[in-house]
Please model this.
Amino acid sequence: MARDMTPEEYRRFMMEGTRTGKVATTRANGRPHVAPVWFVLDGDDLIFTTWHTTVKAANLRHEPYVAISVDDQMPPFSFALVEGEAEIVEDAPDELLKWATAIGARYMGADQAEAFGKRNAVPGELLIRVRPTKIITRANMTE
Model:
């Protein structure tokens, strides 16, 4: 039976495997923009990186509010929708390296994490921390 996830189930769901987040931002002219991102959690905060010239970086500089959708595409189907405010963290190379390496470990594997972190913790790469203001979850949609 479909149901809401507990906070523990939500965190486990979000970090399971290599699910991507689909981040929705708003352009300066009001049009929506959605982009897939690799992410990790820090408590309930979502952490991802982006290059400083991407559309999402420009959008976040203009308007920091985001919605992020993460779903399980296999039966019985589940999803989490996170609304929140994004903080752009610049000029924090140690933090950027830490989180880029964690993201690399999740998506590229432990053996490539360090190389991925170093490749992505460079000037121009932005660390994005999303603090959730609302989390909606549903587990087992088809049961």
Summary: The chain has a mean pLDDT of 96.
